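Holo prediction — 2-phosphoglycolic acid.
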Amino acid sequence: MKLVVANWKMYLTIRESVAFAKRMVRSVPKPRARIVICATAPALAPVSAVLRKTPYLLGAQDVGIARHGPYTGELAPGDLRTLGCHYVIVGHSERRRLLGESDTVVRQKLETALAAGLSPILCVGESLAERREGEAHSIVRRQLTAALKGLKTYNLKLTTYTIAYEPVWAIGTGTPATVKEAVLMHDFVRSTAKKLLPRGTKISVIYGGSVDQKNIISLLREHAIDGVLVGGASTKPSFIKMLKVVH
Ligand code: PGA
C-alpha cells in the first residue's frame, strides 16, 4: 500500500486543523492508501481525537533529542505516542536549514523516535546549488550515513524505515522533480540505505517537493516510489480530491 504523508507545517491553526481533519474523514472515510497526517504540535491532541477509529494515522512534525529531562521546548517522544502519533518527521530540510539542525541532531532524534516506538520519516535531499555542482548523490549519502550507520535496531520486524527524498529546490517552489529524476534518486536512496541498515530491515522511500493534484498519480504509479510527502497542497481542499484517487 502506498503511503501519503500530509505535512501541515505551520500553515493551519488548531481550529483549522480540526475542521480540515473532520472534512477529510467525512469526505474520504476509506482511503485506499495509508494516510498520515502530521499536524502542528499544539493541534496533535484535538486532531488525534478526530482521527481515532478512522484509518487515518497521526504523525508529528518533529521530536525531541532525548526521552526526558532538561530540554526546554523539546517534544518528548513518549508524549507523542500517548497523543496517538504513529509517525514522526525527522530532519526536514526546513529544520536543517532554518533552525540549524545538524546531521548529529537528526541522528539523535531518529534514535529517540525509534526507542519510543515511533516510525520515523527521515528527510534527505540536496539543495539546488549542490545539484548544480553534481553533489546530489554525495549529499544524500552523507545525510543517510550520518542518520543510519550503526543504528541500533529497534523492533526490526515492526518498524519500517521511511525515507523521504525531498530535493530542497522542489520544496514549496511549485517545481517538482520530474518522475524520472525522482525514480533515479529513489533507487540510489534505497540501495544506500540498504547497505547501512541490517539485513531484513523494511525500507520505504517516498518523494516530497511540490507534490500536488497534477503529479501525485504519476509519481505513485512508479514502483520505486513508495509514497509521497505533501506539504502545502495537503492543507488545501484539493487534498481531498487527491485522497479520493490515491491507491
Ligand atoms: P511542499 O512541501 O509540498 O509544500 O513542496 C513538501 C515538504 O516540505 O515536505
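READOUT: The chain has a mean pLDDT of 96.
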